[in-house]
Amino acid sequence: MGLLQPDPFLNELTSMFERNRDKGSVWVTVKRSSMKSKSQKNKMATAGEPVEYRCLIRATDGKKKISTTVGAKDHQRFQASYATLLKAHMAALKKRERKDKKKGVDGDRKDGAGSTKKPKRV
Amino acid sequence: MVYVTSWDEFVERSVQLYKADPQSTRYCMKYRHCDGKLVLKVTDNKECLKFKTDQAQDAKKMEKLNNIFFALMARGPDVDLSEVTGKEQMEAQPAKKGRGRKQ
């Protein structure tokens, strides 16, 4: 696969997350890039042209690699879709329910980590 | 590896690292659904900052950080970060105007 347009990239990323639900990891890397080789960049700099930078996003699951670039104009739209995607897939993370002081309804905590429990009424 | 314990510290140091060297700083994320773990890494190939978590609330915070990095990288390191949050407000405003029109 390799370099894709932002929308197909997001689709591929979705299937990557799906494939790696029960086993495996998904790595996503974001970096600024002009997508030009050094010599081209030097030429542009000496010619006085502004070098346009884009955001390079890469993703892999250890086997397959995909990537895309996002420019300043598209980045907001991309980031909204990307955020939705991540939210949908990161469901395995623990939800911290803080019912510290008020009710001892769900009083049985296995961890006991975090806030020290003071006796409420003596 | 340098694991930062405080989220805010991680964000502040990452942004500093990026502004110091926007060309070589990158932001990486690794997610393992089977373990329910998320690890974030920001490095400029000299220094490395990492943050790991298994909390859903950190995923939300990470999304905001994503927005910050996208803005910094696509537009340039001189982007005013209040723009990132300011943009969200701007997007909200025209929506309100739209509602006002429907009568």
From TrEMBL, chain A:
The keyword Cytoplasm applies. Its main location: cytoplasm. The keyword RNA-binding applies. One of its GO terms (molecular function) is endoplasmic reticulum signal peptide binding. Residues 93-102 have a biased composition (Basic residues). Pfam families: SRP14. GO terms for cellular component: signal recognition particle, endoplasmic reticulum targeting. GO terms for biological process: SRP-dependent cotranslational protein targeting to membrane. It is found in: Cytoplasm. Keywords: Cytoplasm, Ribonucleoprotein, RNA-binding, Signal recognition particle. Residues 103-112 have a biased composition (Basic and acidic residues). Residues 93-122 are annotated as: Disordered. Heterodimer with SRP9; binds RNA as heterodimer. Component of a signal recognition particle (SRP) complex that consists of a 7SL RNA molecule of 300 nucleotides and six protein subunits: SRP72, SRP68, SRP54, SRP19, SRP14 and SRP9. PANTHER family: SIGNAL RECOGNITION PARTICLE 14 KD PROTEIN. Belongs to the SRP14 family. Component of the signal recognition particle (SRP) complex, a ribonucleoprotein complex that mediates the cotranslational targeting of secretory and membrane proteins to the endoplasmic reticulum (ER). SRP9 together with SRP14 and the Alu portion of the SRP RNA, constitutes the elongation arrest domain of SRP. The complex of SRP9 and SRP14 is required for SRP RNA binding. This is Signal recognition particle 14 kDa protein. It comes from Citrus clementina.
